């Protein structure tokens, strides 16, 4: 019987149309089930059966793409000439070429018709060329809404430009893509994550987006806008309370919580930041945007063991992700093993060249070893990648300052300031530079500005990080001979960071200058109890004690013997160690600042 | 404190019971113990309600609290903190933070590799984090009395003493029954002015605090008054009061009295190890070897691993001049509790004996870190730097010591000697006079004074001082200052010889013969005297032989320190004018 039926089928009339639709459905369902080989097989058959319907060819190419046979798919589409008639096909072909790392070919494909219009002539040129590309008469393949497709093409072009290291054109493309389809988060993320835009540009972008036109209702509009805004430049809206209001149901949304954690991070509120990221990772252990912030939090809180475990876990599961190796590098950095740290951070940057935090950490690994030139090279690389971020510039300036190149340092700081005018870290560094230039009034101005900003950021409790700022305020006031004020600032620094040897010896010095030798001796003693080999405190203590011999009454209960002994203040020019301090203090400040800044930025991306 | 202490014992007892309950539910073991001891000596007083029935935590948190408290009692601090992390009621919140604090403290002790190592930076930063957490609550006004206490303790640990003082005094105002808070506050009062400026609640606990604070300030008599009054007011059977009184006697250097009080205490409370280290110090000073050995055996039988025990044994070995072993025991004490002041100081002394100045300095400094009012450590530091020939340093340390014990002649003498080394004669003289006027316990001030005058080539003053020294020491004919005595006699003989007061010269030269060192010189002197006498008339010899048996030197005996003081002042005025 079977033989009979078989022979009957063989007799089927070749001209009789087969029900191709069934096979098409089959292909789709296999695709949905991720059985790509089966899908490819039947898609191929469908193409033959339908005699090369463009739609079927598209799906065949799609199957090839999903099987990572990029060249084959691109060749198929081009061979059939579909990229000229169907925008979707052109998109797919270009996508394939991008995946196959044939960037120039991909670019050619995306701008093939305007070879004459020079795309390097600037952004307007691009816009035109893109528009003309998109406005071409087009045969649509069902299932793709036009605005999304257009935006996708633009996004793809942006990706190609980025792969070709042409970031300004890329960002232009992303912006266009986002404008055509405000829901295209890929484009938004590419703009935000890689720090391509400065804060102002980002704000311009948001306000220029045609959200109103593209949303169906007011509520939608508000939702989209608020979600985007809450994801924007976190250190510009640092006070965690001033977070943009979003839909109450979205409060617990992980992406928004990550943004909240990042805000806490920039406010130096590491415990809170860590608490949030930990909660997020409990819900979603491999939340990609959360991981860099979580790692940065671990570094700040010095939780080496947790970082060790996390890094191992990540490397086991996703060895292809830059963030996994970033975690490993950070672990070694935290352990003070700079060599392996550099090796793994280098691996992270080679996996994703745009991964800014890794570049910065790479720079830090040199900076803590006083390898200023190499550190600067790494920071420069980071600054090229992250045009809209002030941190690389800040670090470059810092390194310049450490190599006693104050003028250059100033230049970088003011560049950083144009990007982030209110950032207290930048203000603080500008103050340090002014201090080093012995322009104390200017320094005081900067420090006070920074302090005011810090007060705004973390009310009512100032983060411990800012101990250096208070100390520097103290140093500056001392230079300006406002000893009372100086003492007050140092004391505040001590509250933020108790048992700090350098703060104590600064207090001792101010007290000595104020002529309060008893107290001063006590402070230097305390300082030496913490840092036993501090040369400055030792020599100052000796001087103070020698003065005390003459000044204080021989025993308690005796009146002080007049004022015939010169007070230390008057004698100051003759004290060689006062001179030592003048030379010594600023590098120390910078040192502390260096420590302060380290890793404040792990999560720029 | 003019008004005597009058207590309504029934109220006090009710307070005590409440306090015991409050402290015990929070795991404040030491305060509970202290209050219970006090309560025990009021056992004859009857009160109506024995157990306060206030709810300690919200009902829904009660189960977590019970679990956490049980872990706390078993010293599983991290686990305890974990289970009441999110509790809202104040008692649970306190227990959570307290457990965290304890966990840090224990880790600090466990991680201590080397005694002199500074604090582990990681633990310090965690302590700081705890402090930040508490500060946030403090600024919001969310802390109850016990949490305030904890905040104060943490602040103190972080060396933020002014804040700590403020916070602790708030704490005792809110909850005067918590003895631990008072005790922490005592340690923060560095001088008498601070004590006076403190605003304290008007509560009967204040008396205990004040007495303790006076004791710490070396205002021993004031402390003793209050303790006596408290005993009379009804706490007669309190072992705490007895021990405190013994410490007062110890501070006043009334050694015998102190030892007797301690004996009484031991009879009353034989298994009490608190303060036994002080007793061992007393026995050490008195060199009562047998007693000390007995005490050492006794306490080590009660509990080998108590800091007090280690200290007693350390003292015992030190008395036997086995300094290595002594150091070993002090180190053991410090491993058990690095905040244990007495052991640091005593270890410093041992290192001094072993001529290890570096280790001695470190030990003394640690002692001062723990408690700035430990005058022995300051004094020890001064001595050590004296050995190291850094007089300006040792001067500073001696001054600190003297500041704490204004009327202790030993410090003053040390100060004077240091001034002498620094060639500040005026100051040196002042110090020696002052030492003399506060009652020169060791009898060395006058000798030093004499030598100094000699050095200043002021023979009259020197001679008067020497003769005074001789007068004081001749009677007891002690063995200890033999050579000084002989030198004094020699000086006086020479002096009078020069003045041609042959009778006196003869007397003193005779004295010289009694000492090995000056025998020959004495003979030589006698010969010169005889020669001189041969030149002079020579019929009074017999009379002076008589007077030699009574060495009184009528001419100078009326020179008291006060007189010396006067003439000294005239002198100094003259010198200032000449400047």
From TrEMBL, chain A:
Keywords in alphabetical order: Cell cycle, Cell division, Mitosis, Repeat, TPR repeat, Ubl conjugation pathway
Spans of repeat TPR: 424-457, 467-500
GO biological process, one term: cell division
SUPFAM superfamilies: HCP-like, TPR-like
One cellular-component annotation, GO: cytoplasm
One Pfam family of this chain: TPR_8
Record-linked PANTHER family: CELL DIVISION CYCLE 16,23,27, CELL DIVISION CYCLE PROTEIN 16 HOMOLOG
Annotated protein name in UniProt: Cell division cycle protein 16 homolog
TrEMBL record, chain B:
Alphabetical list of InterPro entries matching this protein: APC8, TPR-like_helical_dom_sf, TPR_rpt
TPR repeat ranges, renumbered to this chain: 307-340, 341-374, 375-408, 409-442
Lineage of producing organism: Eukaryota, Metazoa, Ecdysozoa, Arthropoda, Hexapoda
Regions of compositional bias (Polar residues) in chain numbering: 545-557
One of the Pfam families matching this protein, by short name: ANAPC8
Pathway participation: Protein modification; protein ubiquitination
Domain Cdc23 stretches: 12-246
Family in the record: Belongs to the APC8/CDC23 family.
UniProt keyword list: Cell cycle, Cell division, Mitosis, Repeat, TPR repeat, Ubl conjugation pathway
Gene Ontology biological-process entries: anaphase-promoting complex-dependent catabolic process; cell division; positive regulation of mitotic metaphase/anaphase transition; protein ubiquitination
Origin species: Nezara viridula
Region named Disordered: 537-557
Protein name: Cyclosome subunit 8
One annotated Gene Ontology cellular component of this protein: anaphase-promoting complex
């Amino acid at each position: 019987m079977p033989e009979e039926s078989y022979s009957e089928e063989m007799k089927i009339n070749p001209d009789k149309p087969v029900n191709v639709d069934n096979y098409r459905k089959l292909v789709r369902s296999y695709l949905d089930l991720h059985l790509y080989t089966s899908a490819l097989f039947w898609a191929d058959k469908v193409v033959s059966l339908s005699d090369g319907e463009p739609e079927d060819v598209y799906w065949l190419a799609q199957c090839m793409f999903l099987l990572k046979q990029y060249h084959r798919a691109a060749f198929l589409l081009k061979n059939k000439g579909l990229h000229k008639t169907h925008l979707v096909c052109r998109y797919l072909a270009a996508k394939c070429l991008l995946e196959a790392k044939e960037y120039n070919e991909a670019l050619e494909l995306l701008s093939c018709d305007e070879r004459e219009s020079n795309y390097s002539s600037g952004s307007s040129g691009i816009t035109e060329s893109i528009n003309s590309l998109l406005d071409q008469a087009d045969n649509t393949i069902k299932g793709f809404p036009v605005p999304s497709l257009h935006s996708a093409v633009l996004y793809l072009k942006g990706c190609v430009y980025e792969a070709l290291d042409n970031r300004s054109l890329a960002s232009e493309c992303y912006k266009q893509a986002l404008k055509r389809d405000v829901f295209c988060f890929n484009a938004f993320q590419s703009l935000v994550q890689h720090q391509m835009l400065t804060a102002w540009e980002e704000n311009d972008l948001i306000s220029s987006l045609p959200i109103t036109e593209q949303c169906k209702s007011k509520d939608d509009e508000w939702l989209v806008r608020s979600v985007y805004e809450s994801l924007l430049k976190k250190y510009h809206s640092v006070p965690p309370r001033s977070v943009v209001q979003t839909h109450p149901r979205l409060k617990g949304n992980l992406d928004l919580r990550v943004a909240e954690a990042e805000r806490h991070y920039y406010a130096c509120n590491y415990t809170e930041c860590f608490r949030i990221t930990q909660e997020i990772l409990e819900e979603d252990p491999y939340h990609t945007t959360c991981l860099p912030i979580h790692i940065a939090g671990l570094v700040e809180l010095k939780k080496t063991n947790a970082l060790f475990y996390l890094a191992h876990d990540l490397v086991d599961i996703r060895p292809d992700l830059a963030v996994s190796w970033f975690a490993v590098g950070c672990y070694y950095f935290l352990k003070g093993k700079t060599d392996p740290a550099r090796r793994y951070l280098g691996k992270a940057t080679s996996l994703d060249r745009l991964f800014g935090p890794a570049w910065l950490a790479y720079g830090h690994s040199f900076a803590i070893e006083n390898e200023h030139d190499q550190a600067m090279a790494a920071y420069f690389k980071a600054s090229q990648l992250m045009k809209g971020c002030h941190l690389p510039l800040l670090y470059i300036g810092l390194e310049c300052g450490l190599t006693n190149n104050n003028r250059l340092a100033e230049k970088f700081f003011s560049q950083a300031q144009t990007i982030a005018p209110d950032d207290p870290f930048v203000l603080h560094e500008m103050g340090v530079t002014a201090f080093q230039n012995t322009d104390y009034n200017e320094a005081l101005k900067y420090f006070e500005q920074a302090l005011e900003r810090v007060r705004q950021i973390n009310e009512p409790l100032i983060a411990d990080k800012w101990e250096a700022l208070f100390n520097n305020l103290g140093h500056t006031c001392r230079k300006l001979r406002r000893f009372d004020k100086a003492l007050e600032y140092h004391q505040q620094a001590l509250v933020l960071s108790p048992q700090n040897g350098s703060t104590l010896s600064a207090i001792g010095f101010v007290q000595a200058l104020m002529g309060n030798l008893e107290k001063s001796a006590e402070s230097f003693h305390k300082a030496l109890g913490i840092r036993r080999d501090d040369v400055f405190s030792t020599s100052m203590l000796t001087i103070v004690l020698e003065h005390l011999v003459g000044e204080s009454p021989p025993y308690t209960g005796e009146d002080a013997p007049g004022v015939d002994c010169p007070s230390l203040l008057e004698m100051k020019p003759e004290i060689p160690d006062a001179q030592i301090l003048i030379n010594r203090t600023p590098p120390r400040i910078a040192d502390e600042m260096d420590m302060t800044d380290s890793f404040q930025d792990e999560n720029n991306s | 404190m003019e008004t005597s202490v009058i207590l309504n014992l029934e109220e006090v007892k009710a307070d005590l019971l409440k306090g015991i309950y409050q402290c015990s539910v929070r795991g404040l073991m030491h305060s509970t113990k202290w209050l219970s001891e006090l309560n025990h000596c009021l056992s004859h007083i009857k009160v109506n309600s024995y157990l306060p029935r206030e709810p300690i935590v919200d009902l829904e948190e009660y189960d977590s609290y019970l679990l956490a408290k049980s872990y706390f009692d078993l010293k599983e601090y991290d686990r305890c903190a974990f289970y009441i992390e999110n509790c809202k009621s104040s008692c649970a919140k306190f227990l959570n933070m307290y457990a965290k604090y304890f966990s840090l403290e224990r880790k600090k002790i466990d991680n201590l590799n080397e005694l002199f190592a500074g604090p582990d930076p990681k633990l310090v930063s965690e302590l700081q984090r705890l402090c930040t957490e508490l500060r946030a609550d403090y600024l919001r006004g969310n802390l109850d009395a016990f949490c305030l206490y904890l905040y104060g303790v943490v602040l103190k640990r972080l060396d933020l003493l002014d804040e700590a003082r403020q916070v602790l005094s708030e704490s005792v105002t809110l909850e005067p029954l918590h003895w631990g808070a008072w005790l922490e506050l005592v340690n923060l009062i560095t001088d008498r002015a601070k004590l006076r400026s403190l605003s304290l609640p008007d509560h009967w606990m204040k008396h205990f605090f004040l007495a303790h604070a006076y004791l710490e300030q070396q205002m021993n008599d004031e402390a003793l008054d209050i303790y006596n009054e408290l005993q009379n007011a009804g706490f007669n059977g309190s072992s705490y009061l007895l021990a405190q009184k013994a410490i007062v006697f110890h501070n006043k250097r009334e050694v015998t009295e102190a030892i007797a009080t301690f004996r009484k205490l031991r009879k009353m409370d034989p298994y009490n190890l608190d303060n036994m280290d002080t007793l061992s110090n007393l026995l050490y000073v008195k060199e009562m070897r047998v007693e000390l050995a007995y005490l050492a055996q006794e306490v080590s039988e009660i509990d080998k691993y108590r800091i007090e025990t280690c200290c007693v044994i350390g003292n015992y070995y030190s008395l036997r001049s086995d300094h290595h072993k002594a150091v070993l025991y002090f180190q053991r004490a410090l491993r058990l509790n690095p905040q244990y002041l007495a052991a640091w100081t005593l270890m410093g002394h041992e290192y001094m004996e072993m001529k290890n100045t570096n280790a001695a300095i470190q030990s003394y400094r640690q002692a001062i870190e723990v408690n700035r009012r430990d005058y022995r450590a300051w004094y020890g530091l001064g001595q050590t730097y004296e050995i190291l020939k850094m007089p300006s340093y040792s001067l500073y340390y001696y001054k600190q010591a003297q500041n704490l014990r204004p009327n202790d002649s030993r410090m003053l003498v040390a100060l004077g000697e240091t001034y002498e080394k620094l060639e500040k004669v005026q100051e040196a003289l002042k110090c020696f006079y002052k030492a003399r006027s506060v009652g020169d316990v060791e009898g060395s001030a006058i000798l030093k004074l004499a030598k100094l005058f000699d050095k200043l080539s002021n023979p009259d003053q020197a001679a008067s001082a020497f003769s005074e020294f001789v007068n004081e020491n001749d009677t007891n004919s002690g063995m200890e200052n033999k050579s000084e005595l002989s030198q004094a006699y020699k000086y006086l003989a020479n002096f009078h010889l020069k003045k041609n007061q042959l009778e006196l010269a003869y007397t003193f030269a005779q004295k010289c013969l009694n000492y090995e060192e000056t025998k020959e010189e004495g003979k030589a002197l006698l010969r010169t005297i005889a020669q001189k006498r041969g030149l002079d008339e020579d019929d009074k010899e017999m009379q002076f032989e008589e007077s030699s048996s009574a060495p009184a030197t009528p001419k100078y005996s009326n020179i008291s320190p006060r007189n010396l003081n006067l003439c000294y002042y005239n002198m100094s005025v003259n010198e200032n004018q000449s400047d």
